[in-house]
Q: What sequence folds into this?
């Protein structure tokens, strides 16, 4: 699988019983859902303008690359169990909200 011109893979022996938090491309979601019984997809979202500014501040991509990335980020995600996570709060608030979400997911299984 690839994302943003990078290629990566996850070895099956790295996936353990219990909760696994794995970052994958949108194109790999259906593959994961087909191979594993319980898959929850978390789409981490932020307003486009805020995302553009965050990516620009990192200074790793050109404005054109950032815009292409943003365009990809706002395409519809096809997943069986999709949760939208708003990441527009402060780093402290978003971190705590994400930890709470992961704990909630872990408790459901």
A:
């Amino acid at each position: 699988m690839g994302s943003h011109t990078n290629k990566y893979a996850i070895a099956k022996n790295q996936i353990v019983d219990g909760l696994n938090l794995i970052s994958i491309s949108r194109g790999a979601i259906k593959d994961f859902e087909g191979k594993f019984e319980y898959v929850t997809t978390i789409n981490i979202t932020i307003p486009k303008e805020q995302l553009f500014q965050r990516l620009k501040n990192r200074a790793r991509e050109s404005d054109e690359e950032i815009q292409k990335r943003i365009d990809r980020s706002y395409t519809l995600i096809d997943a069986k169990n999709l949760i939208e996570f708003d990441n527009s709060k402060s780093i402290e608030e978003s971190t705590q909200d994400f930890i709470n979400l992961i704990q909630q997911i872990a408790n459901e299984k």
